[in-house]
């Protein structure tokens, strides 16, 4: 996927880009994504659209009097489908960005959300060893600044490291990222454009050079790009 | 947007979202048609023949249930063979009850009644066939937009194109 630039102050841009990146990362780790939820939504909406299209065509060809009875039922069915679609999006999908299973058949489902005017990405993670096993639910969150640089480019590595270190099931599939995340946390490395580079040990948190600060190199670059 | 092309489900979602906006508007209109029993429950006044009651551009709401139309009611009718709805007042009625109701209409601002306007050989309106509804409410002037759109068809194309581009590009 070609990396594109987004407006860092647009919360929906941040969320949509991250939502798209999450299943891409998991499928690259050989997680099997299930599209069942999406397919039901697509089936509901396309049926509704097709009913409206037929109504439109019949009305155009035959006129009002001939189609009155049919239109009556079409309107009813259309709005029932629309109601079902709304229920599906708000009641069933609930912001689900990934639904699937890992290598050993364990189930993983992740929903994302944000709160108005706050740049924090919330994930609700549900895992279970199998369909019959009781699921465990956990909630994690992080600032978007962790994986977007100041220019608005998505940086995959820190995002993947965050997921791998927070969600055990992903960590098992991608131990390298867990290791890298640990090093970053301990302050032995600093993030650059996506590679991990070993530097001198940082001062403890609070000195302003914590894990969420963009690297000096990125800062230098954005200063140069600033047009006044 | 280009990233979406590599993901068929996501591009289908975006296309369907746009289609749902259009189809919901259309089905709401049809729902109103069914409820009022009128093929065109909202019309825009196109001429000044009903001044001072209605001006050009007024938006009228019609109701077509209850076929017992009275003298003095303002009705909208379609002349056979012509496609323009006309808004005029009922000035005379014949029949009713068991017999089919026949109406004669006249524009408040016109000198003569509408016999001239009716289809060839017709000198009254048939309530159940010609009338598309009685006026039950109106909003002044807001219908002027549609007069502009129908008199300058390119505006329609521009408006529809802009709507389409916005929905496809945005993901709100």
From TrEMBL, chain A:
Residue stretches of biased makeup (Basic residues): 216-228
Transmembrane annotation, as ranges: 40-58, 70-90
InterPro entries (alphabetical): Spc2/SPCS2
Keyword Transmembrane helix: yes
Region ranges (Disordered): 195-228
Subcellular location field: Endoplasmic reticulum membrane
Lipid bilayer topology: Multi-pass membrane protein
One example of a Gene Ontology biological process annotation: signal peptide processing
Keywords noted in UniProt: Endoplasmic reticulum, Membrane, Transmembrane, Transmembrane helix
GO cellular component terms given for this protein: signal peptidase complex
Family, per entry: Belongs to the SPCS2 family.
Free-text function comment from the UniProt entry: Component of the signal peptidase complex (SPC) which catalyzes the cleavage of N-terminal signal sequences from nascent proteins as they are translocated into the lumen of the endoplasmic reticulum. Enhances the enzymatic activity of SPC and facilitates the interactions between different components of the translocation site.
The protein, known as: Signal peptidase complex subunit 2
Organism: Heterodermia speciosa
Automatic annotation (TrEMBL), chain B:
Keywords: Endoplasmic reticulum, Hydrolase, Membrane, Protease, Signal-anchor, Transmembrane, Transmembrane helix
Signal peptide (from-to): none
Name the record gives this protein: Signal peptidase complex catalytic subunit SEC11
Gene symbol of the encoding locus: SEC11_2
Its job: Catalytic component of the signal peptidase complex (SPC) which catalyzes the cleavage of N-terminal signal sequences from nascent proteins as they are translocated into the lumen of the endoplasmic reticulum. Specifically cleaves N-terminal signal peptides that contain a hydrophobic alpha-helix (h-region) shorter than 18-20 amino acids.
EC code: 3.4.21.89
Peptidase S24/S26A/S26B/S26C domain span: 35-94
Quaternary organization: Component of the signal peptidase complex (SPC) composed of a catalytic subunit SEC11 and three accessory subunits SPC1, SPC2 and SPC3. The complex induces a local thinning of the ER membrane which is used to measure the length of the signal peptide (SP) h-region of protein substrates. This ensures the selectivity of the complex towards h-regions shorter than 18-20 amino acids. SPC associates with the translocon complex.
